[in-house]
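Backbone geometry:
***
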Amino acid sequence: MYAIIATGGKQYRVAEGDIIKVEKLGVDAGETVTFDQVLAVNNGELSIGCPTVAGATVTATVVKEAKDRKVIVYKYKRKTGYHKKNGHRQLYTQVKIDKINA
């Protein structure tokens, strides 16, 4: 059984027991989060929502909040001597999928 959820502007295919990284939710570790934007559920037969599946939710527990690895952003224009180096670390929340309610 799996579901496709939408959070943080992205879509994730999840099953019970999966650990995924999503955009920062601002929730402490150990708390429970409910995702109500379930786009599709497959429990033997595929149910696709329009845009979401009615009455379907996914419950997850927050494992931790942290920063992802550093991504280097380097801007360069040739022949002018212009170059600029910048780094970025995206904040994320790691969650463990507990139950798919469909």
